[in-house]
Amino acid sequence: MTSKPKPTEPDGPALEVVSGWERRKPRSLWMRSRLLILMAAVWGILFWYNLSSDPLISARDGLILTWNAKWWLAVLFGAELVRQAHYIISEHWGAWDHFWGEVFFGGLARRTGRLSNWTRYRARRIFTIVLLLVVAAIIAGAAYQVNPVEGLFEVPGKLFSALPGIVQVLFYLMFGVAQFVLIFWYMSRGGVDVYYPDDIKTRFTDVWGQDAVLERVKECLVFLEDPESIEARGGYVPGGILLWGPPGTGKTLLAEAVAGETGKPFVFVDPGAFVNMFLGVGILKVKRLFRKLRQLAVRYGGVIVFFDEADSLGNRGGLSGGGIFGPGGVRGMTAWPWTAGDCHGASYLSERSVSLLLEQLQYAAGDLAPGPEQPRRLRDRMMMMGGGGGGGMGTLQSLLSEMSGLKKPRGLFNRYGRKVLGMKPKPPPKYRFLIMMATNRPDSLDEALLRPGRIDRIYKVGYPSKAGRVRTYQGYFSKIGNELSPADIEKLAMITPYATGASMKDLVNESLIVALRRGREAITWPDVLEAKRLKELGPPEDVEYIDPERHATAVHEACHAVVAYRCKVHLEIDLATIEKGGNYLGMVSYIRPEDRFSEWRSEHETDIMTSLASLAGERFFFAGDSTSGVSGDLESATTFASLMEGFWGMGSSIASHSVARRLGTGGGPGPSEGPDMLRGTLGGRIEAKLAELYERTQGVIEQNRLEILAVAHALEYYKTIDGEDVVAVIEGRQGRSIDGRVYKAERFDEVFGAYHDHHVAAHVGHSKVTVPLPKPYDWAPELVNAPLTGNGLTHPDTGAKLEGVMILPELPENGE
C-alpha cells in the first residue's frame, strides 16, 4: 500500500499514514546517533584521562574507575539506545507509535503541543547549548579533580598558561585590537528588530481599502512559498517590492500582513538604523543585517525584511543623477510634471525629446540652477565630506552589493578547509529573501536601487477608492458600538475623498470621544459629523461676531453655497459654517460624489463662478458694497482663469504660456516676464474670462435671492450645518437636523427680508442693528407640530433622536 505524506509544521516530526495508522518518517543516521556519539566521546575522554594520569593503571582498572565515577553516563547511554530503538519500531509499525504517542503519553504530548514549533525550536536550541556546557563542565571537573563548575572556569586560564610566550604576547596585542572591534560591533547593533512567525498576528483580512495592491503582493507570496513553480520554467522569484504613496495609506500594515500570512520571520529595519556618527558603521550594520537574513532564510525557508522610510537610506543625495527626472522616469511611479489625471503627454516622443522636455521643465521649476560648473576639486571635496546620501558614505553601496552581489559559500570549513584538502567548496544555498521597502518620497530613491533584480515590483499604495473607504469604515465601526446605517457609512466614505487608513481610524476614534463627551455609549451620525469638523477645521475660536458682521458673513457663505448648488454638478456641498477658525471667518467645503481623475472646462468655470459668488453677492445684497473677505476668493478665481487661459488649453488660445515664457517667445522679456505678464494678451484674456463668468454669477444670484437668504438665516441660527441640510434649506424640505420646509413659507421673505433690509440700512447709515434674529418658526407657526414624513431626525443641539415631529429649541414664548 502506498503511503501519503501528512503535512506537518516545520521542524516537527513528519508523519506518514500506512494502513490507517500514522507512523514516523525515517530520520537520518546522524540525527539518530548524535547523542550516542556525544556520550560515547565523553566516556572515552574520561577513560583516557584515568589511564594517562597513572601509567600503572590497567585498562580494566580504568574502566572500573570510570564506571564508579560516571556510572550515570552509561545509564543515559542505555536509555538513549532504548529511545532510538523505540523510534526505529515506530518508523515501521504505526500501531506501536499510536499506542505510545496517543494512548500512553497522549496527555503530555497535548500539553506540550500547545506551544508553536518556533517556540519549541528556540527552547530546544537553549537546551542544546546548556547540554554542551554541562558536558564541558563534567570533563573539566574530572580533569582538574574539582567540581564541574570550578573546572569550567579553570579551563580558560589553563589553556592560556599552556601557550608559548610569543603566543601570549600576540594574544595581548590582539586583545587591544579587539577593544576597537567590540566598540564597532556594539555600534553596529540596534535598529533591526526580528519578529518570529508567532509574534505577528496581522493578516490580509486586516488590510482594508487596498485590494488592487493586495492582490499583486499575494502573487509575489505564491512564488516565495513555491519558488520551484517559476524556477523550473527558467524564471526567477521576484525578490523586491517597493510600496510608495502618501503617509498613512497602509504600507507598513501591508508588510506586516505579508509576514503574518507567510509564517516567515519578519525583520523590521528602523529608518534611522544606518545613520551613524562614524564612517563605516553603516556598512557594518548592512553586513550584519544580511548575515542575519541568510541565517533566518536557511533556518525557516525564507525571510521578509522591511525597510520603512526607505528614502532615508536609498539615495546618494546630489550624486544620484536619477530619480523621476531621469530619461523615461522611474519604473512604476513615473511622475511627470503635469497634474494628476492628465494625459501622459510624452509617450509618443523619442527618448532624446523626452529628456530635453524634462530638462526644460526642471529648469523652469528652478531644479537646475544655471551658471558655470563648479571647479572639480571643490566638487570632489564635497563628495568626500558629505557624500553618501541619507545612510552615510558607502552604506547605500553596501546595501546594493548585498541585494544582488555574489554570495560566498557558507561555513569556515566549507570555504577554507575544503580548499586545503583540495576540494571545491559547496555552493551557497538559494536564500529566499523578500525585500520590501516603503516610502512617500519615491523621487529621492537611487535608480540603482530600483533596477530589476533588486526591486522587481513597484506598487503605489494610494488613497483608497470609495469602495475601499466604505470597507475600511465598516471594519473600524464594527469594533465600536454605533447606530450608523449602511447609508450613513457610504455617505461618510463619500464626504472623506482623500482619507487614508490612518485618518479613517482616527476619525472613528474621535467620533467615539465625541459620543462619550455627550453621554452616549454608541456613535450616532451627528457625532461623526462633529468629529469630521473638528479634524478638518479644528475647534472654532471662542469669539462672537457682532450682529452686522455675523449677518454679512452668513450672506457671504450663503452665496457660495447656493451658486455651488445651482452650478457645480460635479461637486456636492459637504459643510457650511460661519464659526471663526484659525484663518477664516466662515467657509463652504465641497466633495466629489464619486472618484474621478479628470476635469472639464465647464467644471472649472463653475469653480470660478462659485469663487466670484461672494463678490457678486455682497454687491447685490449690500447696495454695491463689499468686504475684504472676498480677497481669497478673487485670488482663487484669478488662478483658475490663468491656468485655463495660459496652460490647460481651456481658453481662446491653444499655446502653452509656460513654454512661451521660458523660451522668450511670449509677450514679455524672455524667461522672466515679471509684472508685464498681466499687461499682455494673456492678462486681457484672463480679465475677459473673469468678467464673463462674473456676469453669469450675478444672474444666478438674482434668480436665487430667497434661497440665499434662507441659507443665510440657517447659518446665523445654527452656525454650522452639513451639506444635506443646506440642500434641504434650498429645496424647502425636511433634512437630517433642519426642517427646511419653513423656508418655503409665504411670510419668510416678509420676516427675514425685513431683518436683512434693516441690516443694509444700518450698514449704509453706519447705525446700530436693533432687530433680533428671527427664529425658525416666527413666520410659519403652523409648522411647529406638523408631522414629518419619516423618523431618524436629530436634535440640532444635543444630537438626540427625534421621533414623529421636529422640536426646535428657543420656540416663541407666546406659542406661535
Task: Characterise this structure.
The chain is α/β, with parallel strands linked by helices and 816 residues long. The chain has four domains: 4-172, no CATH class; 173-333 and 387-408 and 429-462, P-loop containing nucleotide triphosphate hydrolases (Rossmann fold); 466-537, Orthogonal Bundle (Helicase, Ruva Protein, domain 3), CATH 1.10.8.60; 547-779, Peptidase M41 (Methane Monooxygenase Hydroxylase, Chain G, domain 1). A six-stranded mixed beta sheet has the order 4-6-7-8-5-9, sandwiched between helices. A three-stranded antiparallel beta sheet has the order 1-2-3. A three-stranded antiparallel beta sheet has the order 11-10-12. Mean pLDDT is 75; it is low at 1-19, 317-330, 334-342, 346-350, 364-391, 667-679 and 789-816.
Largest sheet: 6 strands, mixed
- Helicity level: 40-55%
**CATH fold call of the largest domain:** Methane Monooxygenase Hydroxylase, Chain G, domain 1
Low-confidence stretches at least 5 residues in length (pLDDT < 50)?
A: 1-19, 317-330, 334-342, 346-350, 364-391, 667-679, 789-816
Please tell me the overall pLDDT.
75
